[in-house]
């Protein structure tokens, strides 16, 4: 009887392990592993939702907010209310914003055109605040304009409280709403849209590269924006136009910039071929003086359920994140950085080498993190493509530093482990 009990217990234990293994295999990807995740892919010609996973659940937009800042800027330019050469004054509030930033000084000025470039490359928070104040008269004034515009575009779950996306528990959106904004930007402002393809921006004697690493590395990607705060994870909206097919895809809540980018690449590869090559592409109504320019096609609320979620009906697989807590309990204070999508705390990075391939750079970073152990556990790692004289190299970089001292100390530790490195401010 004792042996029978032993073997029965053992069989039950192995059955449970086998079930958990199968459960884990059936449900890959970000769905169960990451409660912050949300994603959607929309056919930009027909409005069909090709993929959706928690696309209606509320999330923090982070620097995707700057998409709306630019939408309102484009609108004001077209209305003749402002010009790209207009001088935007820098307030004390704007100058005091945390990184990512240009380092604008109180009382200085910068043109509207320069700010626009700074937003799509450096994702500069000081420039975004200055532009928001310029458009709305104050940050609160801008927030009211932005939220009202969101509602008019059908972004029913979105509220804006600032122009940059730094933490505010009241500033929320959904992947579905961000897809609508991405569609609207390209549809309403095709004459301005090429701005989102900007690869670098020169200001104050410095050159700032784009944080959007998919532009130039994934065929057909022509924008739009990255975003990051601790409370949101790594966000990305991508527009793809290739072989007569167009999609807008949104990934929110990535654990790292690299994993977010990899997931976006997979979504593009899988769903762009499924998009239609016909359709007007007139999907989002645009409010104009005297009414609505045309009737909008509503995007479906519910898209196809990903295959890995069809495999189960358990509560854990379909858990819905409740409306975001407005107590700031899960939102960073202003110690978080911006929205670069590459680092979490400051513009300081540590580079440990450059290789001819992205995989080689990532392998170098993994070896460094493995050697350093817990010392680098909280740091992000990513490869930055650099093109010069027709040749591409990938710079292996670590991010997530609180500042210069943190970066320098980390580089010193890596040197003691045999890794050549240097610390620099992006």
Automatic annotation (TrEMBL):
Please list the residues that make up the active site.
63 (acyl-ester intermediate), 66 (proton acceptor), 123
Q: Which InterPro entries match?
A: Beta-lactam/transpept-like (IPR012338), Peptidase_S11 (IPR018044), Peptidase_S11_N (IPR001967), SPOR-like_dom (IPR007730), SPOR-like_sf (IPR036680)
**One GO biological process term:** peptidoglycan biosynthetic process
Residues where substrate binds: 225
Q: Sorted alphabetically, which keywords does the UniProt record give?
A: Carboxypeptidase, Cell shape, Cell wall biogenesis/degradation, Hydrolase, Peptidoglycan synthesis, Protease, Signal
Q: Does the keyword Signal apply?
A: yes
Q: Name the domain of life this protein comes from.
A: Bacteria
GO molecular function term, any single one: peptidoglycan binding
- Where in the numbering of this chain does the SPOR domain appear? 342-426
UniProt lists the family membership as follows: Belongs to the peptidase S11 family.
Q: What is this protein called?
A: D-alanyl-D-alanine carboxypeptidase
Gene source species: Georhizobium profundi
